[in-house]
Request: fold
Amino acid sequence: MTKLLFIRHGKTEWNLEGRYQGSQGDSPLLPASYQEIHELAAALEELHFNHIYVSPLKRARDTAMTIRQDLTQPELPVTILSRLREFNLGKMEGMAFTDVQARYPKEYDAFRNHPDLYDPTLIQGESFQQLLKRMTPAIQQIVAANPRREDNVLIVSHGAALNALVNSLLGASLATLRKRGGLSNTSMTILETRDRGNSYKLLDWNDTSYLSRTPDVTDTI
Reply:
């Protein structure tokens, strides 16, 4: 039984400003975000982890390394997997949500609400199908490397990407990938598999109960 703990990175400057970051934009974590990452790490302290897998983007790497420094597992390995990066959002990256809604209304609505209708051709971005095709093998690789009943792994990545990935692993169709709502900064979502990745069970979704601050609308995507 492998447990996968999916962590969305801490809150960044562009998160606060309501801007799309994607796989090319990468604004820094807010100073206050480090305290929230410490709070997350404290909530994880009683668990033993085999490995941390992390997106190559700096906001995710900074989150992962802060967690690692806090955990009392000095030899805990960290592996960067490029497949765990955020959506490529093309022309939308760096733009305010309100500006995207005005300039690309169809893409804006579909990305948030109707993944099956999302066509990123105009913005020169990545589709949901393309994202899942690159991310799913990373999870298969992680589960294969951590097959024992007691194995726990941390996967530090991004809100939109993790939302699509986790719901897909749970069997959601393209049209229902967003049915559970968004994921907040510094949130934890937990899946387990008892059959080496053939199926998954949801144990926790978008948990932020360990944070001293209540997430607001700028935290969740």
